[in-house]
Write a structure and sequence with these properties.
Distance between the termini: 25 Å
Structural class: alpha/beta
Number of helices: 11
Length: about 375
């Protein structure tokens, strides 16, 4: 079939590889690197992102759910796959069968994993997740050593690592970040005093990998950074990352409207003079937040064109500058570069009053991902 939808997402896999190498270069020799590809690789395509990261030297792959891990394993990814939150008890058999490394922080899941592994004559590795203050998931720091001691006698499971997650790694000088790190060190010291080998110890996300080299420990876990997006403005200037995602569409219609004519639902825009309007075939069902209406720009012909009227479910409109020629079929860029202009994910996120993570994950799957670059290797 020759038809392709006229709104899509380009993903530059060469950029993913470059970003992994750039982030790895911040760490000491021997520090392992986990590439996090949860949420379909932050919207970039989990399988292609994982493959690109592994080519660039990633040691392990991190995901959020059993379903995400299974998708990668079934697609042929043989690298160590980590689920970064504890799976449901009912998934213990799948964890063992597909050689997945789960986070663990409850006796209930530990018992289920032990039983599933023992039934197959194997020993299942796990990483103990410690809540050092984020208050989300994990065993409380003060209870971590006791849980590890309780599980030490289980024949079917083995603690391969210990990890935590920072709430404010992107806030320079934040005292709560320091407190989390101090609590984590306390857990590690307690485990050591009890004769328990913590194995692979990890805490650093992308922000900590860039800003806090003291947190690199045995392994870093990078998600947003491998896609060329910064976790916060605090990391700008500290590292050069190459954005991997561009969001594009082709102009579906061009029309001339008169002075005072309205555009879109509710007529939140009226032309102040005779104006050319170009329509693009994507909207909030594709992940272009309705709140950006009358705020965002779109690139056409290398020029910025103001988005006008309310973003609808399947359409949005832009005002074409006078003396600029636009025709149906012309390429428009919502995120990315065209000519000498660039619209970043951060710019669009600012208009949407959110963060780049949410936008990247939110461009819907009805928009085809066209993977470029390293896919051909």
């Amino acid at each position: 079939m020759g038809y392709r939808r006229q709104a899509w997402v380009d993903v530059d896999l060469d950029a993913v590889e470059r970003n992994v190498r750039t982030l790895k270069a911040l760490t000491a020799s021997g520090t392992r690197f986990m590439a996090v590809v949860k949420a379909d690789g932050y919207g970039h395509g989990a399988l292609r992102a994982a493959q690109a990261a592994l080519r660039a030297g990633a040691d392990r792959i991190g995901v959020a759910t059993i379903e995400e891990a299974l998708e990668l394993r079934m697609a042929g990814v043989t690298a160590s796959l980590h689920v970064l939150s504890e799976p449901p008890v009912s998934a213990a058999d799948l964890v063992v069968r597909y050689d997945i490394v789960p986070a663990l922080y409850s006796a209930e899941f530990a018992a289920a994993l032990d039983a599933a592994a023992t039934a197959t004559g194997s020993v299942a590795p796990y990483h103990l997740k410690v809540d050092t203050g984020m208050g989300r998931i994990g065993v409380r720091a003060e209870d971590a050593a006791n849980l590890a001691l309780e599980l030490r006698g289980s024949a079917g499971i083995r603690m391969e690592g210990v990890f935590t997650h920072f709430a404010t790694a992107d806030v320079p000088g934040d005292w709560e970040f320091d407190r989390q790190m101090e609590r984590f060190r306390g857990v590690l010291l307690k485990l050591k005093s009890e004769g328990i080998d913590a194995g692979t110890v990890h805490a650093a996300n992308t922000a900590a990998t860039i800003l806090h080299p003291e947190t690199h420990l045995d392994m870093v876990r990078c998600g947003i950074g491998i896609y060329g997006l910064h976790p916060d403005r605090s990391t700008y200037g500290r590292i050069e990352l190459a954005p991997a995602m561009s969001v594009k569409a082709r102009v579906s219609q061009v029309k001339r409207i008169g002075m005072g004519d309205g555009v879109g639902y509710g007529f939140t825009y009226h032309a102040s003079a005779p104006t050319t309007i170009a329509t693009l075939p994507l909207g909030y069902a594709d992940g272009v937040h309705r709140v950006v209406s009358n705020r965002a720009d779109v690139l056409i012909g290398g020029h910025r064109c103001r988005q006008v009227g309310r973003v609808a479910m399947d359409q949005l409109m832009v005002e074409v500058p006078e003396r600029q020629s636009v025709r149906p079929g012309d390429e428009a860029v919502l995120v990315g570069a065209q000519g000498g202009e660039t619209i970043t994910m951060d710019e669009l996120a600012e208009h949407a009053q959110t963060i780049n993570y949410e936008l990247a994950c939110g461009f819907s799957l009805r928009m085809e991902r066209r993977h470029l670059g390293a896919e051909r290797h």
